[in-house]
Amino acid sequence: MQPIKDKYPSITYADLFQLASATAIEEAGGPKIPMKYGRVDVTGPEQCPPEGKLPDAGPSAPADHLRLVFYRMGLDDKEIVALSGAHTLGRSRPERSGWGKPETKYTKNGPGAPGGQSWTAEWLKFDNSYFKEIKEKRDQDLLVLPTDAALFEDPAFKVYAEKYAADEEAFFKDYAEAHAKLSSLGAKFDPAEGFSLDD
């Protein structure tokens, strides 16, 4: 991303990363994220949250763990399940995360560096297949982490997981709102209210 930052030095790194995330989701077929921009970059590591604040993949009580992580950020069960749906993209590499297979029929030829285990067969397409695959549990080449399975095991999460498996439009709407909310947490904006590129 450095070449883009070099070409447009007035954009902050914080906005550039968020613009990249929103653009990637949309380009992969997902919803347009109602992103707010104007983030101010931090000037030192002491201004950043401590490392280790992301969810663990295999805690002993996955639903409780997801709530512990996301409730402290002001997110609710619907937002937790919607954000989990981002696993429709990408793959896990056991040498980096300790989870997944070294390669599967879906990842052995890339694109990019081959290998890893994806949550969906078309792991570069943003859709609701993540929820469908977890619900059906039919393909051993697809990854289901304990925190993924919890979405259909926990009664409160299951309401949303079932809804998103059946209704991609509802998933897209809720995901877009949750993504935008998460991307603004803890950020300082200039101007204070931020701005939209659509304004």
Automatic annotation (TrEMBL):
<dbReference type="GO" id="GO:0042744">
    <property type="term" value="P:hydrogen peroxide catabolic process"/>
</dbReference>
<dbReference type="InterPro" id="IPR044831">
    <property type="entry name" value="Ccp1-like"/>
</dbReference>
<comment type="similarity">
    <text>Belongs to the peroxidase family. Ascorbate peroxidase subfamily.</text>
</comment>
<feature type="compositionally biased region" description="Basic and acidic residues">
    <location>
        <begin position="92"/>
        <end position="106"/>
    </location>
</feature>
<keyword id="KW-0479">Metal-binding</keyword>
<keyword id="KW-0376">Hydrogen peroxide</keyword>
<keyword id="KW-0408">Iron</keyword>
<keyword id="KW-0560">Oxidoreductase</keyword>
<keyword id="KW-0630">Potassium</keyword>
<dbReference type="GO" id="GO:0034599">
    <property type="term" value="P:cellular response to oxidative stress"/>
</dbReference>
<keyword id="KW-0106">Calcium</keyword>
<dbReference type="Pfam" id="PF00141">
    <property type="entry name" value="peroxidase"/>
</dbReference>
<dbReference type="InterPro" id="IPR010255">
    <property type="entry name" value="Haem_peroxidase_sf"/>
</dbReference>
<dbReference type="GO" id="GO:0000302">
    <property type="term" value="P:response to reactive oxygen species"/>
</dbReference>
<dbReference type="InterPro" id="IPR002016">
    <property type="entry name" value="Haem_peroxidase"/>
</dbReference>
<dbReference type="GO" id="GO:0016688">
    <property type="term" value="F:L-ascorbate peroxidase activity"/>
</dbReference>
<dbReference type="InterPro" id="IPR002207">
    <property type="entry name" value="Peroxidase_I"/>
</dbReference>
<dbReference type="GO" id="GO:0046872">
    <property type="term" value="F:metal ion binding"/>
</dbReference>
<dbReference type="InterPro" id="IPR019793">
    <property type="entry name" value="Peroxidases_heam-ligand_BS"/>
</dbReference>
<dbReference type="GO" id="GO:0020037">
    <property type="term" value="F:heme binding"/>
</dbReference>
<protein>
    <recommendedName>
        <fullName>L-ascorbate peroxidase</fullName>
        <ecNumber>1.11.1.11</ecNumber>
    </recommendedName>
</protein>
<feature type="domain" description="Plant heme peroxidase family profile">
    <location>
        <begin position="11"/>
        <end position="199"/>
    </location>
</feature>
<feature type="region of interest" description="Disordered">
    <location>
        <begin position="86"/>
        <end position="117"/>
    </location>
</feature>
<keyword id="KW-0575">Peroxidase</keyword>
